[in-house]
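Reading a protein record of the kind used here takes only a little practice. Each token is a code from a learned vocabulary of local backbone shapes. With that in mind, consider the following protein and its fold in token form:
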Amino acid sequence: MKMDATAEGDLYFSGRIKIRQVLLKSGMYLLLSAIALTFLFPILWAISSSLKSLGAVYEFPPTIWVSEWRWSNYPEALRKLPFLNFMLNTVVICLSATVGQVLSCSLVGFAFARLRWRGQGFWFVVLLATMMLPGLVLLIPRYVLYDALGWINTYKPLIVPYWLGESAFFIFLFRQFFKAIPQSLEEAATLDGATTWQIYWHIFMPNAKPVIATVAVMSLIQHWKDFMNPLIYINDMDKFPISVGLDLYNSLEGSWINLLMAASLTALAPLVLLFFLAQRYFVQGLLLSGTKG
């Protein structure tokens, strides 16, 4: 009898624990779903506005529901302004700057991770300290420099600096990843007569695909959505990237909020697709870049 009572008690407490776990997990999912909807609400509102007429966008009280679906807003937004030209300019700037940033930051990261030179630790601290310097502080000095070089109203201020290791954060990511690569690979290559450049290019870079993908995605997103720099350095409308071109929907011939939302979502689509395609490498690169100090 005692054993039966003990078994029944164990089953009772086991059942209560399972019910508590189910309730806790359900509550956690509900909370996370509510947070996700909060973050997704601006996107849902943009989608809703892109499918409304201009009058419906300004209705009061505002509503997210669409009474009359206007899919014609999307082709109209592409025709209203030279949208495809803006996108082409953006692709040229982003690809040129991203390739330069990956190559230059990987080189500097390799130098900090594997080479031994005087003052290495000091200069690495100085490099990290530059991350605390606001970009606006350098805005006027950079403009004066680029104006003296004759670079204003060209893409050079948006591309050339990124071929010179401009991002301290990306250098840090490469340095951390390269430090985690086994020393034996480098020693074996040295015994085979490989030079420092060959070790970097043929051993470290092929093994750095996760961090390369991480830096490439983050760099591409950074340049794609950059608004301040093109606004300052580019004057001609036919040279505008999409970040500056989208603002024209809100200022040229009045405010076209529904077309602005349609054009914004179209411009956002390549970034969303890129992130999902590179997500595995992106997460892996961030994790592996912090495995060794």
In short: Residues 5-58 form one domain. The mean pLDDT is 86.
